[in-house]
Amino acid sequence: MILARLIPKNSDRYTFINNIVDIYSIFFEKHKFLYLFSVWTVTMSGFVFNKGQIDRFSYWDWSEWEYGLIKIIISSILFLFIQNKNFIDLKLFNKNNSVLIKEFLFLVLYFFIGLANFNIFDLNIILISPYLFAIAGGLFLYRISIKYDSNSEKWDVINWENKLYYFSASFILLIISTYLGYLFDDPIISTVSMISLFFPAIVLLWPSHVRHILRSQFYPLFTFSMFVSVRAPWFLIILFILFFISRSINYLKYGIIYPSFGVDQEDILGDV
């Protein structure tokens, strides 16, 4: 990270900027801006799904970027508005399942915002099922919470409880998504799901370690974003802006390089 080279953590410049950036980091955390990676990617997956239905071989298409941007803005406003609101009361379910179901329903809503157009009523709803299975499978990857220990400068898993259930569910759902995507001749979601299913598999087969959780919570979403961008390349610009802002605030406030392609300290330092 260039910023880490220009402003080392132990320098006077870092201490000065650390105090200034505090107000921005509070706003950033309060409104959960990191979640926008998921919100925007799911929204754009609906947008590029439309393009794929019109032209199976639609790639690197810069047209209609303004409509895609409007959809991202709508999803962002909706996300910021509803994130702390209890619009859906699911008393029949326990707390963890209730949160999971609400997150799924909202992500499906973002997908339909991206999908929406004048011909939406002509859509064969079965064709979007691989995306719904992929979204559900992806959500299970985030059921294991992690935290950063500033003293040891390492990530730790808060609780390994229900690991087998969460990652088995994710693996099965992603297999279904892969199969349906292949069946419906959708190269985007079939490939994304096929790549992503290896991450819950590793968590299940290998001994429990935080690095496997970090990878499973970063790379499937990153893969999804990149494949979506193959059809709508302008989305890469927006992702880069959010990525740069997120890393800069996390570094200048907490001294950590996050999000990062590395999961071990050596990997993260290499990412600098």
Describe the model:
- The protein has 272 residues and is an all-alpha fold.
- It has one domain (31-233).
- It has helices at 2-6, 12-20, 22-30, 36-54, 65-82, 95-115, 129-140, 163-183, 187-196, 198-205, 210-231, 235-254, 265-271; strands at 146-149, 154-157.
- The chain has a two-stranded antiparallel ribbon with strand order 1-2.
- A hairpin with a 4-residue loop joins β1 and β2.
- α3 (22-30) packs across α12 (235-254), α5 (65-82) runs antiparallel to α6 (95-115) and α10 (198-205) packs antiparallel against α11.
- The longest helix has 22 residues, at 210-231.
- It is globular and about 60 Å long.
Main attributes?
mainly alpha; two-stranded antiparallel sheet; globular
Secondary-structure element pattern, one letter each: HHHHHHHEEHHHHHH
Model regions low in confidence, pLDDT < 50 over at least 5 residues: 89-93
| Computed CA radius of gyration, to the nearest angstrom | 19 Å
- Count the DSSP helices: 13
Measure the end-to-end span.
4 Å
Count of the separate structural domains: 1
| Number of distinct beta strands | 2
Structural class: mainly alpha
How much of the sequence is in beta strands? under 5%
- The helix content, as a percent range, equals 55-70%
Largest sheet: 2 strands, antiparallel
Overall form: globular
* Overall pLDDT metric: 86
Main sheet: which strands, in order across?
1-2
